[in-house]
Amino acid sequence: MSEMAEVWPSSKVHVPFSRPEGIPGNLSGRVRTSPLQKLYTRTGSTGYAPLLPAVPWALRHTGVDVRELDALVLSHHAFALGALHTLGSTDVPSIAYVHSPARWAWDKQFRQNEASTLPSQAALTALSQVALRNEKRWAPRVTKVIANSSEVKNRIERWWGRDAEVIHPPVDTEYFTHGSERKEDYFVAVGRLVPYKRVDLAAAAAVRAGVKLVIIGSGRDEARVRASAGQGVELRGHLPRDEVRDIVREARALIMPGVEDFGIVPVEAMAAGTPVIALGEGGALDTVRPGVSGHLVGKGGGLSDSEIIEALASAMQEFDDSRFNRAGLEKFAESFSRSTFRSKMQAVVSSVL
């Protein structure tokens, strides 16, 4: 959203609710919230999940004046398509930049993996019905659909029945090119410790391979990750951004064992001069080019957890650092830069207008 705001600096940004500290500097004074903001503030702004069913309604009450619009650009994960209601029967075009259709709504297996208890499964199932109704109603009405990866494009075609153009998300590649030039003898995994990221598989693979793995991040899946960890696996928790950059920059390779929609962390690693060992599914197929930016394991999918662990362990044991150089990785990462994203988004919206 921040990068889109750079393309259209006079535009307003409408959201159902927000935290002041979460608003980037370039959006200061431009963010408009809905009546849901009061409830979000009263609950301490600590979690938004209980408010999600009300988001489609909230997006109809953020103060959008359709008479001022040349186009409506949506940054979509779940429920944002409800904002199309504000356009009514006008001919104002709409562009949806889709991070993913709601996987937990469309994919029953994904939903079961994310909810570990019966009450949480019931709650997520009920929420998924709201999300499905919202997406089925509004997805056919979007003028132009943009996917953030080939994986998301495939989901849009499968679940929404729409074609989509791929524009990869903006990555702050410039920030990650600065730092230490040395390499140390360890691998690294970075991200929230949540079930679908499968960091537990990376931990188990490192133990199997007998290599050192540094894990950065925290989340509700931490207990499972710790249970898979052993000698040589360090859980560092949440760290400041500059410290994360240095640890990633000095690592032999970043490990990505889960299926991502796109996956910004791998591109940040490449910008830092660090190759990526990733499961050959999802967004990694767009960013991990074998022999150029990293190595893919289990391409094509269908591997069991034990097979993924074995494949990752073999990749770490046999990893050849000499195949990759910092300059080549940094150059490859530049194709995902913020300036590239802005120019592509501007071109798409101009074509629609």
Automatic annotation (TrEMBL):
UniProt record, GO biological process: carbohydrate derivative biosynthetic process; liposaccharide metabolic process
Domain Glycosyl transferase family: 177-317
Residue intervals of the Glycosyltransferase subfamily 4-like N-terminal domain: 72-174
Signal sequence, start to end: none
Keyword Transferase: yes
SUPFAM superfamilies: UDP-Glycosyltransferase/glycogen phosphorylase
Keywords: Glycosyltransferase, Transferase
Top-level taxon of origin: Bacteria
Entries under PANTHER family matching the protein: SULFOQUINOVOSYL TRANSFERASE SQD2 (PTHR45947:SF3)
Protein name according to UniProt: Putative glycosyltransferase
Protein's organism: Dietzia timorensis
